Protein 1
Amino acid sequence: MRNYCFGTNMKMYKTRRDTEIFIKTLLDQLKGFHSDSLELFIIPSFPALETAGRLLKDSPVLLGAQNMHWADEGQFSGEVSARMLKELGVSMVMLGHSERRHIFGETDADLNKKLLAAVRSSICPLLCVGETKEEKDAGVSDELLRMQLKQGLFQFPKEGLHLLRIAYEPVWAIGVSGVPAPADYVAKRHDAMRACLTELFGTEGGAIPLLFGGSVNPSNAPGYLTAPNVDGLFVGRSAWDAENYYKLATSLFPL
Ligand code: PEP
């Protein structure tokens, strides 16, 4: 059976208390849920991680962080390391979200160091890639995706590939001003990313989960999942309510 991933990034919205309510409601819905083919995850804010880690322990939902520094420790005020995250029960880290790239200036070279640090610590890196509207209009989306993948994954160890997840999130399609991307457009970009990953890693590149994100909602989600190289969804606003998260996740995937 094919494997899928489904998860949400809560950005800088939910407080620790909001996250606690979300998780308790979600776990209530998920009572008795078990699937070997669907990986669920949530990515709350840093201050909510400890509470989330406690609540999600032994649950079917993985806990992710929204960022991480590449160093094990050091003079990096305001940053967090893999070891600090692992202590809280974090097993995944989102790297290169468009807000990190475009608001905070993270480069592919920075992300490469973070990806390698995550995999060294056995944390699943969820690398986000995606073109801006200007890059799409100039017809260089696939070139841009190839660059982000090749630079971000430079020297990525083959033995860590089972940990890697990638989310394609066109910058123009995400968030409150996002315009949903046509499903056939997304399918082509995922095919291009798969070709690049196969070029980089051979057949193992064919098994790296490729998630799609950007204004996904219950009506457009099934269309995205018909593409052969879309292995899951990475959802923002439409999954911030626990019942909607549960409904979207479980209605979309064959369990
Ligand atoms: C995002 O910002 O990464 C995202 C997918 O958000 P939304 O689903 O709200 O567009």
Protein 2
Amino acid sequence: MLILGIESSCDETAAAVSLDGRTILSNTVYSQIDMHALYGGVVPEIASRKHVEKITAVASEAMDKAGVSFKDLDAVAATCAPGLIGALLVGANFAKACSLMIGKPFVPVHHIRGHIAANYVAFPELEPPFIALVASGGHTVIIDVEDYTRMSVIGTTRDDAAGEAFDKIARVLSLPYPGGAEMDRLSKGGDEKKYRLPRARIEGHPYDFSFSGLKTAAVNLVHNANQKGQEIDRPSLAAAVAAAVSGEIVPRVIKAAEEKGRRAIAAAGGVAANSRLRSGLERICAQKGIKLYLPPLSLCGDNGAMIACQGYYELMAGNIADSSQNCYANMAVSDILAGR
Ligand code: KG4
Ligand code: ZN
């Protein structure tokens, strides 16, 4: 089964071709980050327009690199939710047009399911059930992956995602957008105990997160220091933020695995590239005898391979759609997207 997967939910225009789900024949990503960095964050209008400009070239490159032609494809998959609506529509409509052209199914894919599937690409032996942690610029969510297309949310963020907190704090530290990776690098020489940052618990919802208090506290700390003409120890603040984020996420993910009786945890999303989060998960999973899957950094961020892979499993489950398929800015990962 050859599937072309298209991803355009935010600021990456990406396409990939998968063979039987897990074998990736090509994976082409065009990042718009330089453009958005000028504004300190993603500008939705610019994102949509750049997707329009790049989608054909990116998809053609993925097809060429895979050495396949459109008539060889068995289906075309695209991210249809969640994400920036104008951005999603570009990739989804391109994919629908391809599917109509070749007379093969169109497969709508949930972006978070795609992030989870990055682990199937990286680890051939991984099969559900397992617990997934998806931490990105827009999401921080713990999911019980019961099967390839059946999953339920255990905990999610009530406000900002972990990546959003990293990016906003990075901004006041004058780091370029997106600041998560820069914060990670900066934190290496820091003392994580130097600054005390708040932790949040949500009454009655032990698996849910809140990162807005952490974000505001760190931003205020920097502003107050600036007003008083004091120096901020930037590496130590970056280390304290990473320790706080990791300290929120790791225990909840482990507790979720224990409660559900799952013996494996798979991480995904851009924030899963964070070194403190990775080492925190590694340490506790080793102690508890839980198998941990951490995809390579290249598969943590948005890419087409994850959509081509999840597209295969959605196709196998019969989750295909016709040309009236719409896109959605928000949608629960447990919902079936096809036909909505
Ligand atoms: O999954 P992703 O590429 O796009 C979304 O779907 O959001 O995630 C991007 C997010 C950004 O907030 C970025 O700052 C963050 O992932 N990120 C990191 C690291 N690398 C990327 N955050 C913390 N540490 C990192 N090493
Ligand atoms: Zn993403």
Protein 3
Amino acid sequence: MFNIYKKIQLKEVTKRDNEEIDMEGMMNGNNNEKWWKKAVVYQIYPKSFQDSNGDGFGDLQGIIKRLDYLETLGINAIWLSPVFKSPQADNGYDISDYRDIDPTFGSLDDMEKLINEAKKHNIRIMMDLVLNHSSNEHRWFKEAKKSKDNPYHDYYIWRDGDEGVPPSDMKACFGGSAWEYVPEIGQYYFHQFLPEQPDLNWENPKVRRAIYDMILWWMDKGVGGFRLDVIDQIAKEPDKRITINGPRLQEYFKELSRETFQKGDLITVGEAWGADTERAKLYSNPDGSEFSMVFQFEHIGLDQKEGGEKWDLAPLPFKKLKKIMAHWQNELYNCGWNSLFWDNHDLPRIVSRWGNDREYRVESAKMLAILLHGMQGTPYIYQGEELGMTNVQYDIEDYKDCEIINMYHERLEKGYSKDEIMKSIYAKGRDNARTPMQWDDSANAGFTTGTPWIKVNDNYDKINAKSQVDDPDSIFSCYKKLVQLRKDYPVFVDGKFTLLLEDDENIFAYSRKNEEKTMIVVCNFFDKEIPMLLAKECEGMEVLISNYKDTSDMSVLRPYEARMYIR
Ligand code: NOJ
């Protein structure tokens, strides 16, 4: 009964808006025709990708210049971290005009040019929607703080209070109180991030409508999809101390999707730090009523002390990593969709984190790529990951990230030693991912002819795109091949996942199986040689890709060795 009702509803949407949706597939939860299921997305952090005018900041013209490179890699979509107008208190995650481009990055014309040029390279552009908060320099906020009866006042979340006595002791994610006082009106506003990022009031239907109109405006310009920043934090109820997974979240997601995304053939991915598999199944429901997929972070928090913050370092519990990744693969099979990622602009470089950025940098970077790209879901490559770019260790003065700087001062005050704090920054600081893209071995790695806004990693003479693009044994070529394999073999998209050797302390292995093919991926996650425990299972299978040239010895796996077999 329920299914039939849903089917009729969806058919109407299809007829009206979206010829390409395979309705049968959607209804049986197996809609493997959606373009984004075969796609690979590349994330660009525009500030650090390519400068075209020598001001030291990456820009849209710079990205246009590098579209050939991205086409060579084979990716299908670019997730562009925010390029909207912004005072850049949090590198663009503080938007002051959702319908304009920040002059640091270029103009609206440049943006339209990027969308159109990318199309010619078969690449769609996903924009990064920051809908939980705006900048305090957004017109809405400037109006809102003028008076309690200003028409924009209720666009934000306010509570009466006396100076120095905030409504509660809730803390913001980047340190300090979550409440900021505006003396002119005797009220506090709520912010989950910086004071420069006031939270929008989603309970106000006018806010929601303004957001939907803005999204439709971008869709009209030919944008191919959206990433939704901290989207599971929009339904907050500060009086109940609820910031994530609020009671009205599902209602908002469905309305947002119905009013906007469902009117086009888009890829949408919600950033959801609070998602477990049950929630993610709703968010990525194959009926298309919410998003295409979410970013979940269960595996990402593993190497920190329990109950602590990300800065409280702990060794990676390897078996738990396997278990969690397998859990997501299995739980979402045919009733949701995973996004696959190791890196993004908030995370340290994976080769430094769970690989080995010294003697086995190439092997371990490839191993991590093979391991991830064989799974079910849409893979995301973060700029420079395809080159095996590494973490950095700068002096504190050279870091730019507000999160790093605030944490540094907070922890110093709390009595942590400088050494201990720096160790945390080296391991987990967001600027690890934000150093300029390493294009070649010329000055500033070919990123800018001026002074880069943040220091370049000084290993750019060895690690750069120029030396890798034409080298068949490079990390770049490994990624390129993985992107191609996903297009060539349907088993990457629809194969059922099974974790193998669950209790093994060194090997991460799994199989993928559909009606035609069986694939087995075997990875030695560590730097010592170990017995190849799946020799029998893999006998006679074809090696699709590996990170060592000769894979004929079926008795051992060398340090970080990865093999992907198929039959
Ligand atoms: C998540 C983004 O990825 C991060 O970079 C940003 O600082 C926060 N959301 C706040 O927008």
